[in-house]
Specification:
heterodimer; A: 464 residues; alpha+beta; eight-stranded antiparallel β-barrel; 31% strand; B: 8 helices; 0% strand
Chain lengths: 464, 159
């Protein structure tokens, strides 16, 4: 059974449920004004008249800045462009110089040709070298004659009298004659060498014939011994030089000290150059264009390298190799309602350094050197992590990888010391300055924040 | 377009016009170099204003902005607090008063009274405690009130 009250309810419901009426004109304006007035007072209390006064007076305060400000901004922009141009020009010049230097060394330092008409002997510097060289020439001629003799013997079926061929049979009289001739040539050459050496080494007073024979015999023996020693030393020296022309080094590098946190590393800093990729844009959006970033911590980079160097001059080595670098940056947002975010980005680079090393001091056990190189690096991968903390506990996290386009160019200037350890192994340490260019093509890292960073490298070098 | 308004902001945070011009210059260089980061999702004026304010705060943070607070505190203790604030005082005079505030008071007063930040937010921005922000604001307010009254009295005598 239907109650009488329900009819009344239905009546109102049917007539007023979808009832619409336009509000009176000016209602929203008056509401807006009231809200503004309340906002002006806000939570600070109606008694805070100083606050209200200042808010009202400065709500729309404006003043034209002087023209000089715009001139300064323009000048700053021009200066920055010039500086960028200078940096690129310097980097290009350094690369060109490094590329041309080995070429220049090859063109202007050809292998020394001995002019015809001059024997090698005449170019030797010391008398002893001349003597030995003469003796060597004589020996070479003798050996050639012996080879010819052997060849003759080999061609003939019978070679009686020979001790070294055809079953110890003696040589024929003709062959014996040849050998005697060649021995005479050898003896003559040795005598010439001895006489030559005597005139330079021995006292001018004439010895007796017996003394003369004795001294000649001793000198001949000495020359032959010295010749052997000299040749051995020469051979060793050449082998050693050839061996040490190449060396391989394994290096570990980093920036001294711990993590870096400073206002100059802020994303919105004027001097910072970096690429705005998807992760960066998302981070900018979430942090009100970096205004809610509380701190940016840059972990020390880790560099591992393999270097190969080749000696191109007396003290100059051409160096190249491969290097692997890992960089990491963590930015923390401002804590609001006990929650904050951390944006972590890890970058991995593979680099190709090319440079020159100059030995300033070269001793038996150690050497001091200066090195200059340029390095081109290609980013292998960027790993981006977004960590959300609530009440200082990790609440949520996500991560994704990203390719790094473009290249990073840098110039590395170092001074180092190399200490010999054992045999061909030595330990080295280098310290210097690395300047990074083309930073605007790369994701944010310590390199974007500051172009120049100190570097320290240490490792093991092997000479071979 | 925003330059006069932003210059006004800088004038409030700086102790003089030269410093304000430095803030404006540095701020606009940042605006121009990061214009590509603006995503057109909010007000451009708001974005520019935040950069300008942040620039000013960054510069102020580099100096010890609270170093003169103690001297002012002593002066405030002697001041009377009974007079009424006069609404008719002009903006140029108020600006002069703000600029004459010690940098710590000035910064906190600007952020709280004019920009509308809470004391907690100011604490985060300036890396100070919420209590410090409150006390700095309270003293700045008291200091300004006293100066306004003095000015009103001297203006009244002049008339």
């Amino acid at each position: 059974m239907e109650k009488p009250g329900d009819e009344l309810k239905d009546l109102f419901f049917e007539n007023l449920h979808d009832f619409e009426m336009k509000p009176p004109q000016g209602l929203w304006d008056s509401l807006s004004q009231k809200l503004d007035a309340e906002l002006a007072v806000g939570n600070k209390g109606e008694s805070d008249k100083v606050l209200i006064l200042f808010r009202q007076k400065f709500a729309d305060f404006r003043k034209n800045p002087p023209e000089t400000v715009w001139n300064k901004i323009e000048q700053h922009s021009i200066r920055q462009n010039r500086r960028r141009l200078l940096i690129f020009a310097t980097a290009a010049a350094a690369m060109l110089l490094l590329a041309l230097l080995p070429l220049r060394m090859m063109i202007f330092n050809p292998v020394t040709e001995i002019p015809s008409g001059l024997s090698k002997t005449s170019q030797l510097s010391t008398p002893l070298e001349q003597v030995v060289s003469n003796a060597r020439e004589a020996k070479a001629q003798t050996e050639t004659s012996q080879q010819r003799t052997s060849k003759t013997l080999a061609m003939s079926s019978f070679a009686p009298g020979s001790e070294s061929h055809a079953g110890n049979q003696p040589l024929s009289p003709e062959v014996n004659k040849q050998e005697v001739e060649y021995n005479a040539v050898f003896e003559e050459k040795v005598n010439e060498a001895i006489v030559s050496a005597e005139t330079k080494f021995l006292p001018e007073e004439k010895p007796t014939p017996s003394e003369d024979r004795m001294s000649r015999a001793l000198l001949a023996a000495r020359i032959l011994n010295q010749k052997a020693d000299f040749e051995l030393d020469d051979q060793r020296r050449k082998e050693k030089t050839a061996r040490e022309r190449y060396n391989v080094s394994l290096a570990y590098g980093s920036v001294p000290g711990g993590s870096v946190s400073a206002t100059e590393l802020l994303y919105e800093n004027t001097n910072v150059r970096y690429r705005n990729d998807a992760f960066q844009s998302e981070m900018a959006y979430q942090t009100s264009f970096y205004e809610e970033i509380e701190s940016t911590d840059v972990n020390p980079p880790l560099t591992l390298g393999l270097k190969l160097s080749y000696q191109v001059g007396k003290r100059i080595h051409l160096e190249t190799g491969i290097s692997y670098t890992s960089l990491s940056v963590i930015s923390k947002s401002v804590e609001m309602e006990n929650a904050y975010n951390e944006y972590e980005r890890s970058l991995y680079y593979l680099g190709l350094p090319v440079g020159l090393r100059w030995d300033a001091v070269s001793a038996k056990q150690f050497r001091l050197y200066l090195a200059q190189s340029v390095m081109i690096e290609k980013g292998l991968k960027a790993i981006n992590r977004n960590l959300h903390y609530e009440n200082n506990k990790l609440f949520e996290s996500s991560h994704f990888g990203m390719n790094i386009p473009g290249f990073q160019l840098s110039s590395l200037t170092t001074a180092g010391a190399d200490l010999s350890l054992y045999n061909n192994f030595s330990m080295f340490g280098e310290a210097g300055l690395q300047v990074f260019f083309l930073n605007s093509t790369q994701p944010f890292s310590m390199r974007s924040a500051k172009m120049a960073w100190p570097v320290f490298q240490t490792g093991i070098r092997m000479n071979f | 377009m925003f330059a006069p308004k932003m210059y006004g902001v800088c004038l409030r945070y700086a102790k003089d016009e030269d410093t304000a011009q430095d803030y404006l210059q540095e701020g606009f260089i940042r605006v121009f170099s990061h214009l590509g980061n603006f995503r057109h999702e909010g007000s451009l004026e708001g974005w520019v204003r935040r950069i300008i304010v942040n620039t000013a705060l960054e510069k102020l943070r580099k100096t010890d902005i609270f170093k003169n607070s103690l001297e002012v505190e002593t002066a405030l203790n002697k001041a009377s607090d009974g007079a009424q604030v006069i609404d008719q005082i002009n903006t140029a005079d108020l600006l002069q008063l703000i600029q004459s505030l010690p940098s710590g008071f000035r910064t906190v007063f600007n952020l709280y009274a004019i920009e509308g930040y809470t004391h907690q937010e100011i604490g985060d921005l300036l890396r100070i405690s919420e209590g410090t922000s409150k006390s700095q604001y309270s003293r700045a307010r008291q200091w300004l009130q006293q100066r306004i009254i003095q000015k009103e009295k001297s203006d009244g005598k002049a008339r």
